[in-house]
Specification:
326 residues, 5-stranded antiparallel beta sheet, 10 helices, binds biotin
Length: 326
């Protein structure tokens, strides 16, 4: 555990702590503590200073904790986790798992911060320290690549169920797997597959949920978005939500291995946010306007355009026309 994490563990209770007391507890100089606290401000952690009383994080802060996370899991799923790593800072939790030389299913990684968090289609995923959920899970499928179609849609269902278990309603999915709350983006999923062996696939499933974004984030994200804190009007528990997500994933992935996407089709349809809407599908080569007609048994998007039914296995959907220069 680094110095920053140790200092934040003390301040997490929301009470005042003087620099002197923090220094004594951690056995480091006051100037070292002062530097760490300065770093906290750079990380956009809400830190208050009152002369004579010290420092505090108003309302406290919940750091990620593996024991608290596993409390949300049923016993069967606890056994499915081979390892759960909680990192302070990493380039990307997906990359961390992709770099591992293991083929084990059930390796989970969460981080307080990502410096190179990535979204779909090469985008950056904003990942400030201690504010949101950045979670990845390594899973090994005894399936060929061609049978993994629809996996990311299943992950979308798992995330929605996890958030519903936490008490959220009005959630939906925008194909392939944007998690929406009242048409604003609440989270995203990035599934990355390493190695294409005929009957085996090593898959890293990455989930990012906006739980409690720093106040000045609005202008840094180029689409309508929301966080859990704004929905429930209080600070959410990242550990509880992350635990729910892991639990749902560990329940649904073995089912996907055995039954494929077909067994999830009906469930996905309930959350389809664009069904029968006029949308634009952006692929590498074209933008096609049409009516979203749901998905097929492999999880491909069906779009009616110019009297024809088009099928998309990848792409980006926008409900409004995107500006070509944007
Ligand atoms: C999207 O563009 O909607 C997908 C976003 C996925 C972000 C998550 S955060 C955890 C994991 N690590 C990453 O670098 N990306 C995913």
């Amino acid at each position: 555990m680094g110095q920053l994490h140790k200092v934040l563990s003390l301040l997490a209770d929301g009470n005042f702590h003087s620099g002197e007391v923090i220094g004594k507890k951690l056995q480091v100089s006051r100037s070292a503590i002062w530097k760490t606290l300065k770093h906290c401000r750079n990380l956009e952690i809400d830190l208050h200073t009152v002369r004579g009383r010290g420092y505090r994080i108003p309302g406290g802060m919940e750091l990620l904790n593996s024991e608290t996370i596993t409390q949300s899991l049923n016993q069967k799923n606890v056994k499915r986790i081979v390892q759960l790593d909680i990192l302070d800072c990493v380039d990307s939790t997906n990359q961390y798992l992709l770099n591992l030389k293991t083929n084990l299913s059930g390796y989970v990684c969460l981080a307080e911060k990502q410096v190179a968090g990535r979204g779909r289609r090469g985008r950056q995923w904003l990942s400030p320290y201690g504010h949101n959920i950045y979670l990845s899970l390594l899973w090994h499928f005894s399936l060929s690549l061609s049978r993994l179609g629809g996996l990311s849609l299943v992950v979308g269902i798992a995330v929605i169920k996890a958030l519903q278990r936490y008490g959220l309603a009005d959630l939906s999915l925008k194909w392939p797997n944007d998690i929406l709350y009242q048409d604003k983006k609440l989270g995203g999923i990035l599934v990355e597959i390493s190695g294409d062996v005929a009957e085996q696939c090593r898959v890293v499933i990455g989930v990012g949920i906006n739980t409690n974004m720093p106040k000045n984030t609005a202008e840094k994200i180029d689409q309508p978005w929301i966080d859990v804190a704004s929905i429930i009007e209080t600070t959410p528990s990242r550990n509880a939500i992350a635990g729910n997500i892991i639990d749902e994933l560990l329940t649904m992935l073995p089912q996907f291995q055995q039954q494929g996407f077909t067994s999830f089709l009906k469930e996905w349809q309930q959350f389809d946010s664009i069904h029968q809407q006029t949308v634009y599908v952006h692929t590498a080569n074209e933008v096609l306007e049409g009516t979203a007609e749901g998905i097929d048994e492999q999880g491909n998007l069906l779009l009616k355009s110019g009297g024809k039914l088009h099928t998309f296995c990848s792409g980006e959907v926008s409900v409004r026309k995107m500006c070509s220069g944007c």
